[in-house]
Each structure stands twice: as C-alpha cells, then as structure tokens.
C-alpha cells in the first residue's frame, strides 16, 4: 500500500509538471499568434473605418441630389452595421445604388414601413451638409493609405520538424517512477544514533535506529552507493563502513592497506569497482588511486594523480574518473585545487583536464550522470561545467547562509537537493534554474555535520 501511495504521488506530481510544461508552450504560442495578427487587425480597423467613411460620404452626396431624403437614415444604420456584412455587400454589388439596396434596404427605398412620409431637407440644411462634407472629404481620404493584404507563408517542412522536436522534448521515464520509493537520499552523521532516508518524490523521511561510529570526520565525497550498500571510506582507524539498504544496519570492515588514510573521495563504476582517490596518509596529502572490488572486498593500488590532493570530489563516466577540486599540498602548504583531473582506468594514466577554474573555496559538487558537473562555492556562486565541451555556465546563485556541503542530484525529480535541516532543506530545479525551499517533513533542526548519498534501486 505504501509503495502504491508513493507511486500515486509521483504520478500526480508528473501530471502537474506535464500540464505546466504545455501551459507554458500554449502561452508562448498565444503571444506569437498576437504578434502576427496584431498588424493585420490594425490594418483591418483602418480599412473598416475608411469604408464606413466613404459610404457615409456617398450617402450624403446622394442626399443632396435626392431631395426626397429617402437615405437620410444611413448614418444611424451604418453605426449598427456589422463590418463583415458591409464588406460582403460591397463585394456582391456592381454599383453604388445596388450596394445601398443590399446593405440598407430600409434606408434606400423611397418609403419605409416605419416612416409614413419621406423627410425633406431645406436649402439651409443641404448647404450645411455640403460644407461639412467638403471639410471632411480631404482629410478622410488622405488619412487612409491602401496596403497590400498580408499573406501567411508557412514552412511546412520546418513546422513538421518542430512538431517532431516537441514530441521528443518530453519522455515519460517509467523506471524513474516505478522505483521512486527506492530512489532516496541517505543522510547520517557520526554523532547521531539514527540514520535517515528521504524520498524526494513523497518528501517523507524514514528513520532507522542505529548510527555510525567512526574515528574520523566523514568526508562528504567519501560516501558512495553500490549494489545495495552505502559505503563510507577514509576513516583513520583503517576501517570502512557499509550500510545495508535491506537490513538498514551499519557494519564495519577492515580496509587492508588503507590505514590512516583519510580525506578521500570515492566513486562507483556501475559494475563491481569503487575508486578511492587522493586523501591524506598520516596527515599528509597523497596522490594515490585505490580500487575496491565489491565482490571480493579487496583493495589494490591502480594509479596516481598528477598532484597530492585531499578532500576532492570524484565521479565516473565511460571509463574515466573525474577528480574535481579539493586542496593541493605543495611544500607543506595547502591551497585550493582549481583543477579537474582525469584518470583513465584502462591506461592507468592521469592528466589535468581543466585548469584554473574560477571559484572561491569549493563547497560541494555533484554529477548528473550524463554530462554536467554542478558546483557551488563559498560565495554561493553556482554553475555547471559540461564534460563534453568543458564549457562553464553560471546559474542562479545558491541561497546564502546555508552550508552547502553535500549536493545530491536526484534523477526522479530532475533536480538537486541539499539537506541542512528543518526549514533549510533546498531543491534546485534544473528546468527553471531556481532554488526553492524543499517542503519535506524533516524533524532535525540542523544537518550541518551530516553527509548524504543518493541511493539508486539499480545500484
């Protein structure tokens, strides 16, 4: 029942997002429609005004010569006449008299059913009428400049291509919805006796008794999910921790060859290996890359980084490890590491992939699993770098006053989550480029010293 409720909630959220997407498209199309139609409507209004002015003028001229005054009511009838009917009457008529008979049958006849006697105009009225019309003829005629009718030209091939592109911009990811309950964020601290799991879709928390006790402070980048477990590396005791997503329990194992190895970063290759990069050995930064086999639970050294780096972030993509930021140690001096290093697991070679990245004290970094690395620094500057082009794009600044220490990209919401405690948990919408308060049910006032990890059902 709980899984069905979560699935229902996920479907409801997706329906609303889909409707909102098409609402924005619809509003855009309406704007474009008005942009194209507005000049045509303006020309139609000018043409209608000129037509009615010409009809009124001609009717007054006929009134001068037709002393019977049978068309004296044209002015009132013209005001009530529908422009479309007037245009249709003009197109169907071969003479002005025929037009008057068609458009104003009650006014152009010699007598009317409502008027028992025709009206007549005396000389003074006719003279006044002629003078008034002479004053109006010149400016009325000069004010209207006939224009060519607009023609709509549509590139049908391009239109069909746009339709195909529109259909391809939205894809329903059944897997993301069906495993929404298992697509969670694990949050924990070595100072808390509980472990917490957040469902980003339902915004509900699950609390598990039993915390993690380690000798060292947990590095946010040293936590990784693989094959039903969450691993924590880099404890000074020479142990590493495993949290079972089935039993919801922590266990400690000995890390052979990793004694006093802290401040590491770790990433999973999606198969059977976890790569542990950099860190400190006996307090000094190192450039070591170690591979952990999740099946044999064995560690082995596989390569080195160009520099001694600690507290970096590492991500796996297509046989390459991307090691981002951290602190470099040169001549016993630690400085921010403004580089991205790439290590090839096949050739075991590493090189500086991108140098001189502009940021001040990188606070956190996450990977969307496809192309982009998202980063936030100490000034709340937020940006992403494309792994395909190396291009940097500055994004909406992160909220100030928040300790962004563990960004997590969550596929099921296509966004990024940062957990800082009740009323201070934030969600970033990639589509809208906006940060917003994540309205969950977090009961902890602060998660400043907590680290988090995205938990995938497929890993």
> What name does CATH use for the topology of the largest domain?
Neuraminidase
Query: How many DSSP E strands?
Result: 30
Average per-residue pLDDT, rounded, comes to 81
Most strands sheet: 4 strands, antiparallel
Spatial strand arrangement across the major sheet: 3-2-1-30
Straight-line N-to-C gap: 24 Å
Q: Unreliable stretches, pLDDT < 50, 5 or more residues?
A: 110-119, 175-181
Helicity, in percent? 25-40%
How many discrete structural domains? 2
CATH architecture label of the largest domain: 6 Propeller
**What is the CATH homology-level superfamily of the largest domain?**
Kelch-type beta propeller
Structural classification: alpha+beta
Shape: elongated
Total of helices = 8
Tell me the fraction of residues in β-strands, as a range.
25-35%
CATH structural class of the largest domain: Mainly Beta
What is the CA-atom radius of gyration, in angstroms?
A: 38 Å
């Amino acid at each position: 029942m709980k899984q069905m409720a979560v699935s229902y909630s996920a479907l409801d959220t997706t329906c609303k997002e889909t409707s909102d997407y098409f609402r924005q498209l619809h509003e855009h199309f309406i704007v474009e429609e008005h942009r194209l139609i507005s000049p045509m409507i303006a020309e139609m209004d000018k043409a209608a005004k000129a037509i009615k002015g010409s009809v009124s003028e001609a009717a007054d001229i006929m009134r001068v010569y037709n002393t019977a005054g049978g068309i004296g009511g044209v002015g009132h009838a013209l005001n009530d006449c529908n422009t479309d009917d007037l245009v249709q009457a003009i197109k169907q008529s071969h003479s002005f008299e025929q037009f008057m008979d068609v458009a104003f049958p009650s006014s152009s006849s010699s007598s009317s059913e409502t008027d028992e006697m025709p009206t007549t105009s005396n000389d003074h009225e006719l003279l006044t009428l002629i003078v008034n019309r002479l004053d109006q003829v010149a400016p009325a005629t000069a004010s209207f400049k006939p224009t060519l009718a607009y023609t709509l030209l549509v590139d049908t091939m391009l239109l069909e291509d746009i339709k195909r592109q529109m259909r391809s911009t939205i894809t329903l990811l059944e897997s993301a919805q069906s495993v929404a309950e298992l697509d969670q964020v694990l949050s924990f601290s070595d100072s808390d006796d509980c472990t917490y799991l957040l469902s980003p879709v339902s915004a509900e928390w699950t609390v598990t008794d039993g915390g993690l006790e380690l000798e060292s402070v947990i590095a946010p980048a040293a936590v990784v999910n693989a094959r039903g477990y969450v691993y924590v590396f880099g404890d000074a005791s020479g142990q590493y921790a495993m949290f079972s997503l089935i039993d919801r329990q922590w266990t400690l194992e000995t890390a052979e060859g990793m004694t006093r190895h802290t401040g590491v970063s770790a990433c999973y290759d999606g198969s059977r290996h976890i790569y542990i990069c950099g860190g400190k050995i006996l307090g000094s930064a190192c450039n070591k890359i170690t591979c952990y086999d999740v099946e044999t639970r064995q560690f082995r050294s596989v390569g080195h980084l160009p520099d001694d780096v600690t507290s970096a972030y590492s991500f796996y993509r297509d046989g390459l490890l991307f090691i981002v930021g951290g602190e470099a140690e040169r001549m016993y001096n630690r400085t921010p590491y403004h580089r991205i290093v790439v290590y090839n697991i096949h050739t075991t070679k590493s090189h500086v992939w991108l140098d001189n990245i502009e940021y001040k004290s990188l606070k956190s970094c996450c990977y969307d699993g496809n192309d982009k690395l998202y980063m936030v620094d100490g000034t709340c500057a937020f940006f992403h770098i494309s792994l395909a082009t190396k291009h940097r794009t500055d994004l909406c600044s992160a909220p100030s006053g928040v300790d962004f220490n563990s960004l997590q990209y969550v596929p099921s919401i296509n966004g990024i989550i940062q957990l800082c405690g009740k009323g201070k948990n934030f969600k970033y919408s990639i589509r809208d480029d906006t940060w917003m308060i994540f309205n969950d049910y977090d009961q902890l006032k602060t998660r400043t010293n907590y680290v988090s990890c995205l938990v995938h059902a497929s890993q």
